[in-house]
């Protein structure tokens, strides 16, 4: 499993609705509300044999009221 971090910018007033929809998908290991440019930060473990972009697009990015995402790939834990 390969961990990635995804930040979500939500439409105004829709952050809690988006967070609930993300949790309903049961694929995030952690989900936080954040300050700054993005509203939510998720840690997601992607199976090694999956394409990251396709996996995230099919599992998360169709949730309504997400206006932007930023995905950070990880390579090695220290």
UniProtKB/TrEMBL annotation:
Record InterPro entries: Dimeric_a/b-barrel, Tscrpt_reg_AsnC/Lrp_C
Pfam families: AsnC_trans_reg
Top-level lineage group: Bacteria
Domain annotation Transcription regulator AsnC/Lrp ligand binding: ranges: 6-76
Protein name: Lrp/AsnC family transcriptional regulator
Lineage: Bacteria, Pseudomonadati, Pseudomonadota, Alphaproteobacteria, Rhodobacterales
